[in-house]
UniProtKB/TrEMBL annotation, chain A:
<feature type="transmembrane region" description="Helical">
    <location>
        <begin position="62"/>
        <end position="88"/>
    </location>
</feature>
<keyword id="KW-1003">Cell membrane</keyword>
<feature type="transmembrane region" description="Helical">
    <location>
        <begin position="141"/>
        <end position="166"/>
    </location>
</feature>
<protein>
    <recommendedName>
        <fullName>Molybdenum transport system permease</fullName>
    </recommendedName>
</protein>
<dbReference type="InterPro" id="IPR035906">
    <property type="entry name" value="MetI-like_sf"/>
</dbReference>
<feature type="transmembrane region" description="Helical">
    <location>
        <begin position="187"/>
        <end position="211"/>
    </location>
</feature>
<keyword id="KW-0500">Molybdenum</keyword>
Automatic annotation (TrEMBL), chain B:
<keyword id="KW-0067">ATP-binding</keyword>
<keyword id="KW-0500">Molybdenum</keyword>
<dbReference type="Pfam" id="PF00005">
    <property type="entry name" value="ABC_tran"/>
</dbReference>
<keyword id="KW-0813">Transport</keyword>
<dbReference type="InterPro" id="IPR003593">
    <property type="entry name" value="AAA+_ATPase"/>
</dbReference>
<feature type="domain" description="ABC transporter">
    <location>
        <begin position="6"/>
        <end position="241"/>
    </location>
</feature>
<dbReference type="InterPro" id="IPR050093">
    <property type="entry name" value="ABC_SmlMolc_Importer"/>
</dbReference>
TrEMBL record, chain C:
<dbReference type="InterPro" id="IPR050682">
    <property type="entry name" value="ModA/WtpA"/>
</dbReference>
<feature type="signal peptide">
    <location>
        <begin position="1"/>
        <end position="27"/>
    </location>
</feature>
<dbReference type="InterPro" id="IPR005950">
    <property type="entry name" value="ModA"/>
</dbReference>
<protein>
    <submittedName>
        <fullName>Molybdate ABC transporter substrate-binding protein</fullName>
    </submittedName>
</protein>
<dbReference type="Pfam" id="PF13531">
    <property type="entry name" value="SBP_bac_11"/>
</dbReference>
<keyword id="KW-0479">Metal-binding</keyword>
<comment type="similarity">
    <text>Belongs to the bacterial solute-binding protein ModA family.</text>
</comment>
Amino acid sequence: MTASNTKPAKRKRQSRRVPAALLAPAVIGLAFLILPLAGLLARTPWAELPARLAEPEMLAALRLSLLTATAATALSLLFGVPIAWLLARGDFPGRSVLRALVTVPLVLPPVVGGVALLLVFGRNGIIGSWLYDRFDITIPFTTTAVILAMTFVSMPFLVVSVEGALRGADLRFEEAAATLGAGRWTVFTHVTLPMVAPGVLAGAVLCWARALGEFGATITFAGNFPGRTQTMPLAVYLALQTDLEAAIVLSLILLAVSVIVLASLRDRWTATP
Amino acid sequence: MNATTPEGLDAHLVVERGAFRIDLRLHVAPGETVALLGPNGAGKTTALRALAGLEALTDGHIALNGAVLDGAACSTVPPEDRRIGVVFQDYLLFPHLTAIDNVAFGPRRRGTGRAEARALASAWLDRVGLAGFGKRRPKQLSGGQAQRVALARALAADPALLLLDEPLAALDARTRLDTRAELHRHLAEHTGPAIVVTHDPVDALMLADRLVVVEDGRAVQEGDAESVTARPRTDYIARLVGLNLYRGKASGTAIRLDSGAVLTAAEALEGEAFAAFPPSAVALYRSEPDGSPRNTWEATVAGVHRHGDHLRVQLDGPLRAAADVTPAAAAQLGLEPGQRIWAAVKATEIRAYPA
Amino acid sequence: MRRKTIIAAAAALALAPLAACGNGAEADTGGTVTVFAAASLTEAFTEIGAQFEAEHDGVKVEFNFAGSSDLAAQITEGAPADVFASADESNMDKVVEAGAAAEPETFALNQLVIAVPEGNPDGVTGLGDLAGLDFAACATEVPCGSAAQTALDGTGLTPVTYEADVKSTLQRLLLGEVDAALVYRTDAIAAGTDVDGIEFPESAAALNTYPIAALEDAPNPELAAAFAAHVLSDDAQSVLETAGFQRP
């Protein structure tokens, strides 16, 4: 990049006064969101932390959590963006019904979602039984099952976010691209997608965060086996059965890792002008 | 006008959307620039979108250099395959791409390699006077610069037909002047047909070889700048060019208007006719003038407002007209609304032509 | 210290409706006895409670069924309970250590069985037959899991999943996701005819002991003692046996 004067100079924005009617509920809301975290921090047995961090089981759970949440986000992007496009741009009967169906996993208690997945992909499930009989493949109790459970509960977050971005996008840019010789797919990849990138990104972040914290569908569908299906939330839940402090430490580690990952990603994305 | 000429654009655009309908025949020769001039909502932009393939034709056809792009008998060619360049009203530069990548977008889609497309885009930016601005994003460009990038982007795709939708409307007065002159130069260099949509007569007159006046989806007048401005056929165009326009029946030099008043022109004419004269041709008097003017009538001052460096007086009466007077004359006449006044126009100032 | 306050808060939340009931009934002549009992005792204790109410005119038995560790935490934080029936000794020990109970008595034993689908399609007769089969067990953090671990130690067998509690372990079998599950005999019996329970000798080394105690701070000490005594009576014991428990 040349040292041209094209970069807008960083200006100190004058602090604008926030209306009290907004400030008061904002502060109360923030306190409500932050205080439980502060409570966890206050009760953390910090001395135990290094020992916990070195535990191979904890590391395995953390690794598995990061791996599966990322895989679930990738799957959600792969399938969720086209769904969002269909919902935002498609013109077919029953679109509003489809939109409502897509958001079902948001409302469904995750444990029920896990049972529903078992009924489809389980050994006696609609698809699962065929996979088992034909290829001797069982999905429950595998890492694949964890990823599927996470994708099921977190993909709607991505779809809703991307659909909103697509609806807000100015179609005339796509028309402009068409007049320049871009076919529909090229318009999508070269114009639509880059223009809704912030929405896709926000959706992916929500999706990843939701997948990382996923518990109910995972334990129901994928079971609990260290290193294979025991993600951090499952480890936390089981620790809670015997040792509250251990559970707090595990939660904090999960929290810290996700905050670090999201913050570093954000820096990277906002660094490009 | 020869509809069978394969070169250039031959189109009959019929688009219906609810109560709105346009029905427009357009023929544009290679190298020719036609302005679609008309008030807002006349259907100019719809016509443009239909040509670009962004709006389906209800009926009619579009043929460009002999190839049918749209028509009842054949399938519609999609916009990406039409090779029609469009400069949109608010430019629609892709915000996520730099200026040079915006310009290179068209060549890239037509199969040009990345490096070659960038070189081409760079050359186009040079041609529109924006060398060195290639790395800027649209947000970092001024209105005039963005307009020029949009023009370069449309031209870089080597379009067979160039369409410009209100290309100067979004610019401030000063930028507009410079940009208009430059745009005129590029249009002159463009070898294919070009169509400029505008509601500004000055843009139309300056940029186009030929004007098509569109009102309510139809062409109401067509011709070169001179004939259209000299002989307006609708109130809209008369207002635009600043003429008082009347319609009536001519019998010799006398034209009996629909309102009953009679105007006397210098040239003789028979049948349905238009009569037009500029506001500057109207002389105002406190009392009935004597002497030469053949057209004299008593009127009421309906309003007075500043118009350039003189005052425009709206006259009510048997002949509604606008008259221009100098501030000095206005002071002397003591003009104010409601005042009775005498108006006179010389016969030689009145243009009469068949309707 | 700190930890106690957290648990106290949690317990207060969990018990809010229950506490309200207890306080309201205290003025009655018969009174109310509040029993905190392990979730695995739900069916048996509901019946035993009915027996007790029938024998004691005007007395009402209120139950709070939950995981033993949750109940123990609630009691040590001062929840107003009269009786605690735990599914294992370690949780009862916590309550005793905290001074909330004294002299617990064992009222039932529970043994692990291998639960298999009705008719035992894989022909399981003992732990050894689990080799090559998918089976579920409880996580070692919960009582049924520690019992299962004791039984499995040295056999080289590994379940496909360590479930958070015995009910979800059994659920795996009922949904057909596994071929067998290590659960308590009582759970296998409660599942009815869908499930057969196969006894195996190694489970004797991992018996689960159920202790009961009237609590020191019981709001209703006489009724508390009476209820604990009733659970050890023959009437109550036959109910427990029907449910699959063994006499101590």
